[in-house]
Design a protein that fits this description.
The structure is a homodimer.
Chain A: E1 12-19, E2 22-29, E3 37-41, E4 47-48, E5 51-52, H1 54-78, H2 84-87, E6 95-102, H3 105-108, H4 110-124, E7 128-133, H5 134-142, E8 148-153, E9 157-162, E10 167-171, H6 183-199, H7 206-216, H8 222-226, H9 232-237, H10 240-246, H11 251-271, E11 290-294, H12 302-315, E12 320-323, H13 328-340, E13 353-354, H14 357-360, H15 367-370
Parallel strand pairs in A: 1-6, 6-7, 8-11, 11-12
Antiparallel strand pairs in A: 1-2, 2-3, 4-5, 7-13, 8-9, 9-10
Helix pairs in contact in A: 1-4, 5-13, 6-7, 6-10, 6-11, 11-12
């Protein structure tokens, strides 16, 4: 933290991760690593024709943030620290920056971008707000602020890379247009092979048909179970671990995972910045890219990760491959902390990583005036 | 027609095809080939939790049938034929048999099987009713009553074969579990290749990306167009002709169609009866199977059909491959005609081709008594 930031060193930062399973909030301090506390709101933020519902997000975020701030303030008092922030000019409980990562930000984030910065300034006195696509918070959680690439795999699959000048994205197009190699893709390929065995078609796997029957019941009844559901990608992805479990003994299942590994590696190769001498962290890995794997997909372990390492070694020789420990919530907190410290090096982008211009240029004296009215 | 049937030779038969685009009805005579007249009810028959709505089907079928019978009766009077049926003991306007082919019959036809035979006996005096899966009427329309196989391709893809002892089915499991090589499959593969080109991933086709943009607009907005729709398979299939149009000059598009052809051939090979000496029509093709291609998929023409003939020649050497002229409505009329003449040789099956037992054993004196009450 060599850059001078406007936030007091004892001030707080908030990281937020809004996804299909709800809203997670982490509170930290500008100059301390890691979160002080985190909380979860189980209700996913609503989306409507106007995009992600900014009012619904705030209705959950603000009470959660106030509760986290109260807990932190109590803890600081107990440690006799409550005057420390004041000594540096920041009032106790000041939130210097908030970073919110949301699924669907790229296509659905218009209302968030219009309404949230002003509303947060009004409600919490926050001076700096960043709105990020969930792939960007995944990147920040997995890679930090270095150049590199992240592959975020779960039900879907997206790869995101940056040379710190611009973002490169590959796939993440959903289960009908891509997400190649992700959980739904693997599960679907496994069920396809099972149905082939059921029919006596070439490419069938008796082992996967056994697993299909164990999980879903009679094969011919699976269409009637699957198609009426609104969470079809999740149902498909639920079969992916069965494919992994069969891969040791079943060549069809192993072939599916090798193909998935190929698709994931292709996406990573498309976005990983070229080895460019002084790019990246000098002295680490000879300046070649870092590829971080993150998300539930890679909890499948070696049946997928072993062929993936091979495919990545082929397509990106010399790249360092890591299985990330930091999740998107960690990434959101990192972005908030960098923003508070005036040290955010990840590229700005209207939908990938949005920071209102007045914050960047220091014209944040009275952000409330510039805010759109909150609807809601 | 060497079998003696109970129907007067001048009696009528009805064929019905119930699908996603509505209900089609054809009227014919037992001993004359072809339909006398056909009509279309544009409203698709409703399905609910109880299956295909038998009442809704009858509400459309009965007026359509009566209108067709009136038209035929008027035409026969004008030709001075109106006494001909009576001379053979069948009253004018007698409907000897009805065959109804319906999409979803296998999984959703319970109410049809329970309610329709009795209701048709009551309303039209019909003595023989057959209820068939749409794949069976497609078979009857394309192959007739000979052993062989049909591939019915449209948005989906299903193969059905018989040795006249039992039915063999392959695929037709819908766009997430199979339908491999069908219209939605081809369109999806084409869009996947287009998105790969957009991302700079391996396997991309710039030609298909151009077509995607021409048809749907900016590539990154396609997910937002596709996923909210309820007719996603049809949207995917709408891109299949674009893949065919690119196949002449674009190796990726050509590869997709060759892969589709392979999947279709695999399904046909799984169901085509083995060459078995005296099976089939003696003297035709040396006793090997007949594979008929039917449905809108094959209107794509040579870009798909040429590689398909090659794949079929490899997997089913000696099989006769035909592009069928008879559609499922023709097939339904053929089944009704054979049923009326006591000459239905296609295998019975509870969900594939259902003929109530009392009709088979001649105990149809009072079918009304055995009918379930018709519910609205």
């Amino acid at each position: 933290m060599t850059h001078a930031g406007p936030a007091g060193p004892g001030a707080y930062v908030l990281g937020v991760d809004s996804g299909g399973s709800g809203l997670r909030v982490a509170l930290g301090r500008v100059e301390e690593p890691g979160p002080l506390a985190t909380t979860v709101c189980a209700e996913p933020v609503r989306t409507g024709p106007g995009g992600i519902d900014a009012g619904h997000l705030l209705d959950q975020l603000l009470p959660a943030a106030r509760e986290l701030l109260d807990r932190a303030s109590d803890a600081a008092s107990a440690e006799g620290r409550s005057d420390a922030p004041r000594a540096h000019g920041a009032p106790a409980g000041e939130v210097a920056a908030v970073a919110i990562g949301a699924a669907g930000m790229a296509t659905l984030g218009e209302r968030l971008r219009a309404e949230l910065p002003g509303a947060l300034a009004e409600a919490l006195g926050v001076r700096r707000v960043a709105l990020a696509a969930d792939a960007v918070t995944a990147y920040a959680g997995a890679v930090g602020q270095r150049p590199g690439a992240v592959v975020a795999g779960g039900t879907g699959m997206i790869a995101l890379g940056t040379d710190l000048k611009e973002w490169h994205r590959a796939d993440g197009w959903g289960h009908l247009l891509g997400d190649s190699g992700g959980g739904a893709w693997i599960g679907r390929a496994g069920l396809d092979a099972a149905m082939r065995a059921h029919d006596g078609r070439r490419g069938g796997s008796a082992a996967l048909l056994d697993r299909l029957r164990a999980v879903f019941g009679p094969a011919e009844e699976l269409p009637g179970l699957l198609y009426p559901r609104s969470d079809r990608p999740a149902v498909l992805a639920s079969f992916a671990p069965e494919v992994a479990a069969c891969a040791g003994a079943d060549p069809i299942a192993a072939g599916i995972l090798r193909q998935a590994a190929g698709h994931v590696a292709e996406a990573a190769a498309a976005v990983c910045p070229a080895p460019a001498g002084s790019d990246g962290e000098p002295g680490e890995g000879g300046g070649t890219g870092e590829v971080a794997l993150t998300g539930g997909l890679f909890r499948m372990g070696e049946p997928l990760v072993a062929p993936l390492r091979e495919e990545l070694a082929r397509l990106l020789p010399g790249a360092r491959v890591t299985v990330a420990t930091g999740d998107p919530l960690t990434g959101a907190l990192r972005i908030a902390r960098a923003l508070a410290a005036g040290d955010l090096r990840l590229p700005r982008h209207p939908t990938m990583l949005f920071v209102p211009l007045e914050q960047e240029t220091g014209q944040h004296a009275d952000p409330v005036v510039r805010a759109s009215p909150r609807s809601g």
